[in-house]
Amino acid sequence: GRIFNGRRPDRQPAAVLFAESDRDVIDGVLLARSRGWPVSVRSGGHSWAAWSVREGALLIDLGRMREMSFDPASGIVSARPAVKGGDELDPFLEEHGRFFNGGHCPSVGIGGFLLQGGQGWLARGWGWATESIVGLDIVTADGELVHASATENDDLFWAARGAGPTFPGIVTRFHLATRPRFAHLGKTTQVYPIGMFAEVMEWVYTMHASVSPDVEIVCVSVTSPDGDRVFVVSAVALTASREASAAALAPFAESPLLDRALRVEHAVDTTLDQQKAEQAAANPEHARYRVDNAWVEGVPRDVIPAIAPLFTHLPTPASFTIWFSMAPLRELPDMAFSLQSEAYVATYLVSDDPALDDVQHGWLNTAMAAAEPVTVGQYLGDSDMGSRQLKVMGDPQCERLQRIIAARDPDSRFVRYLAADPATVNRNHWTV
């Protein structure tokens, strides 16, 4: 029941353990070893492909472990993996005047989100959420509880920041650096007819890399309340004051296309709660989702037509596609997460009709295939390797991760990526 996607898999675990403590997790790993079961883990249940549900595995569900604590001296928050980043962790930190850039959909648990890199609020300017990990408590394949950090079990610390569901251990607690909470949130919204997609994107590509790092830039194809598909440019500034937000958002008022926009709201006051509510409304729990994504790069004249089908003709009204700016790219720290580009594109096909599952799957694969010439890989958090396999990390990082897995989990106690072809993981499928 804690699988977010209403399109459920037909896989069946051998058993489910609802852990309530670290001791339960340890006992679960030891039980699985005695029975010869592989082990899978569920924290928030938001994996689109339901990676936690594995045939014949012991599924260790961490949903009953909910503790959070905050150290005001260090600014470090400690939280269990199933804690929801927006619904639970953010209100807790707000009481302390602190912020952690968790997932946009407020019900996303922090566990899988962080292990896959953590594309959270203002990742463009403030970094990937996984970079905020300063420590982890981990149950190993031997059933031992260890702490990992930059100075202790540093191989596990390196792997946890980007390995995703192939991580050779079970994280039972994250220790995260937080930042002072922003004082003001301002937003600019520009709504255009979908027929202006190419023109709008051409303008966005000329300016997005120079916008303040305190601004999140997202362009999205959605259905308007009138039933028409539209293209929306959204910019959200998280700053110290209304004046700072207005200054950060000023470049968007210079668009040469504003006189043809259907609606413009510039630098209006908003709140993070309002933004989280919009995210929750766009991502209804237990709807039937097909999701895929791509890191795209190249000159705009090549990229824009290649990604256009993902934005202009989506198969259901509730479906949407986002273009997410990561420019200018920051140099990443040394960690498993290692693949990104200046622009991220993700499509979320949404319906309530099981009869549309195959239709959506075929449409998405066809539209994503058109973008392959400008695709360098994909973000693990929005991927489904059972449907389409792409690179998710650099080759040196992938090789290092495999060495860590071999040393830490030689008997493959923990499940690996759920892939159609495990032999070609971390390769773009059209190169195989």
Description:
- 26% of the residues lie in helices and 25% in strands.
- By secondary structure, it is α+β, with helices and mostly antiparallel strands.
- The strands form 4 sheets. The protein has an 8-stranded antiparallel sheet. The protein has a 5-stranded antiparallel sheet with strand order 4-5-9-7-8. Strands 1-3-2 form a 3-stranded parallel sheet, with helices on one face.
- A hairpin with a 5-residue loop joins strand 7 (133-139) and strand 8 (145-148).
- Helix 6 (197-207) crosses helix 9 (300-307).
- The two termini are 37 Å apart.
- The model has no long low-confidence stretch (mean pLDDT 97).
Highlighted features:
single chain, 432 residues, alpha+beta, 8-stranded antiparallel β-sheet, 5-stranded antiparallel β-sheet, 12 helices, 18 strands, globular
User: What are the segments in which pLDDT stays under 50 over at least 5 consecutive residues?
Assistant: none
Number of helices: 12
Q: Helix and strand string, N-terminal first?
A: EHEEEEHEHHEEHEEEHEEHEHEHHEEHEH
- Secondary-structure-based class equals alpha+beta
Q: Write down how many β-strands occur, each being a DSSP E stretch of 2 or more residues.
A: 18
Strand order of the largest sheet: 14-11-13-12-16-17-15-18
Nearest-integer average pLDDT: 97
Shape: globular
Distance between the termini: 37 Å
Alpha carbon gyration radius: 21 Å
Relative helix content:
25-40%
